[in-house]
């Protein structure tokens, strides 16, 4: 008699994980994605990205807006440009930088919304702990 083993139905959690597009990426593609997020993991670069939301700016304008030093801004703009996050355009003697992909602000909004929810949950938990402490 053949050995028949019953197959377990996939749980919803397992199904949703395998349906995720990221899970189908190769390690090389995941590495590229990780590098993209690494570029955005620096405060000064996020400051520059935020000030460019208003539109294209040159280095002097970015310095004035962010309060960062010239060498620092130039270094971070180079990194952002190499990552394809900003693009540069020569206009006369000035170089103007702008966001290459506006989707970046949607991504930032999603992250901010998530962080806001986490802070609210933590605040609620702290209030519950404080109430418990006071009831003693």
The number of distinct helices, counting runs of at least 4 residues, comes to: 6
Number of distinct beta strands: 3
State the secondary-structure class: mainly alpha
Give the overall silhouette: extended
Average pLDDT over all residues: 86
For the biggest β-sheet, the strand order reads 1-3-2
Largest sheet: 3 strands, antiparallel
| Sequence of secondary-structure elements | HHHEHHEEH
Stretches where pLDDT falls below 50 for ≥5 residues? 1-12
Cα(first) to Cα(last) distance is 67 Å
Helical proportion? 55-70%
Strand content: 5-15%
Radius of gyration: 23 Å
Lay out the secondary structure:
Elements: H1 12-19, H2 27-39, H3 43-51, E1 57-58, H4 59-66, H5 70-82, E2 86-91, E3 94-99, H6 103-134
Antiparallel strand pairs: 1-3, 2-3
What is the compact description of this entry?
The chain has 136 residues and is mainly alpha-helical. 61% of the residues lie in helices and 10% in strands.
Could you explain the architecture of this structure?
With 136 residues, the protein is mainly α. It has 6 helices and 3 strands, in the order αααβααββα. β2 (86-91) and β3 (94-99) form a beta hairpin. The relative contact order is 0.08. The model is unreliable at 1-12 (pLDDT under 50).
Features:
mainly alpha; single chain; 136 residues; 61% helix; 6 helices; extended
